[in-house]
Amino acid sequence: MIRPKLSLQRPLAILGAALIGLTGAVAVAAPASAHHTTITATADCDRLSGERVITWKVENSERDKAVTLKKVTAEPSTEVTVPVKGAKAAPLEGTVIPKAGTVTAVQRVPGNTAEAKLTVFGKWKKNDQEATNNGSIKLAADNSCTPTPKCVDVDKAKYSHTFDGPKGTATVKLDGDLPLCGEGKQWFTLVSYFAPRPQFATPQYVYGTPDSNWIGGTQTEIKLNVEIPDCHTQVDLIWGGKDEVIGELVDGGKRYDNKKLGSTGAPGNRSKGPQGWYNGGDKSCVTPATTFASKCDGSVAVSLSNDGKISKYAVEFEVKGENGFSKKVSVPAGKADNSIVVPAADAGKIEVLVDGKVIEKGTYSWQRPEDCPLPAVTTKADCKDFALTVTNPEGGLPVKAAFTYGGKTETRTVAAGASETVSFKAGKDETALVALPELDLEMEAVYTPEGDCGGGGAGGEEPGLPVTGAAAGGIAAGAIALLIAGAVLFVIARRRRVTFTA
Question: What is the pLDDT of residues 36-59, one digit of tens each?
């Protein structure tokens, strides 16, 4: 008959091994005669070796006769032995089982064995009875026996990480208690970039030196730290060493993709933690600057520079004049552009913009340069007429002149390189006034014709005093220096009149 049994006994040969009990189903063949052996089995898993350890129990059915196991056949055909205390285990074949006794034997089979079978041929000495019996054990396939690992392969290891992009720090740690196998090493790298925007944008350039380190052997955790630029930046924690670093991230170029730790795909997803990338920074990685220079003709020369300490990109400048002027210029990193001149007619208030915002010190309005030549005044006086002429030098702006004498005022606009003359009938007034309001200047001329006008004598043409500057003291000094003997005297002052007589 079939009698399944379960044994709790463990053989001495596997004492100390890490065993997990995996009891199988045992089938025992019916005896061929009254004399027979009964075979039962249990199975365990040796996690150190990855083998299944089957313990066979062979029982003698006869209470008054010993039986000798003349032949033992095992499937799989690995050795079946009987543990012997203090000595080497003996083969099950040839073992004598005393009357009504039991012998325990051990067999090691591969961990993926699904079924094991043991067949024994026994002979009873007393009456030469003999019988062949067998037993078997089925091992559940879903409980396959695998060895307990001593290390983890590099290509199967899992990690966990921390990441602080704004500070440029990260840590990576090997998960579990097992080191990487052999000489295996896994590299990780932290790298920071200059960036054109606080969001992802290209081009980007590596800033400073990337920090790279590896996990392997007894080193199971690393810390990484990089310097962050004082401007827009991107920081990446990547799988691999410095040879994986992309020096320039350009439009259409290579990307780290799933190499970034914390990604959804391999290999980045083999490390648990926050996303290992950061975009930010509140300052531009360029230092655009501008200077302005007014010209005598009313135009303004605008100089654009892109050569600050952290300039890494070309800067797109826009120069706008209040009266409709607009021009865009791209200035490469470390360069300047002095080609822009805003014409007088289009100037007014000038603004220099980058990314739609006026840059620091980027607003200007035309101011008359101090070295611009001033208009000159000449006169022609006789007993009948008093003529005043304003001459405007070339290369300057048109100037308005107001001529006043004898209670009458006439206004003229004098173009650059041209002259305008106003003639008054000579009267009793001894002085005439020439005002240049745009230059904040007034000049007073004394009417002193030569000869005796009562006798019809005629006066002559006399040169006047050119305007030499805006400051009252400078103008007066220039006027005196340019006096010509016999000329009608002019006194030039700012918003005040001073009369000189010959």
Answer: 889 999 998 887 788 889 999 999
Indicate the residue type of 341: V
Fold equal for 12-143 and 289-365: yes
Cα 214 from Cα 224, distance rounded (Å): 10
Compute the distance between CA of residue 444 and CA of residue 196 in angstroms, rounded to an integer. Answer: 62
Q: What is the CATH number of domain 289-365?
A: 2.60.40
pTM of the model: 0.54
Q: What angle do CA 318, 319, 320 make, to 5 degrees?
A: 115
Domain coordinates in residue numbering, the chain? 12-143, 154-280, 289-365, 376-493
Three state DSSP letters for 309-363: CCCCCCEEEEEEECCCCEEEEEECCCEEEEEEEECHHHCCEEEEEECCEEEEEEE
Task: Please give the radius of gyration of the chain, using alpha carbons only, rounded to the nearest integer.
Answer: 55
pLDDT 10s digits, 437-473: 988 899 898 888 876 776 543 444 444 443 333 433 3
Least confident of 103-117, 325-339, 415-429, 462-476: 462-476
CATH annotation of 12-143: 2.60.40
Which of 501, 499, 373, 369 is CA-nearest to residue 442? 499
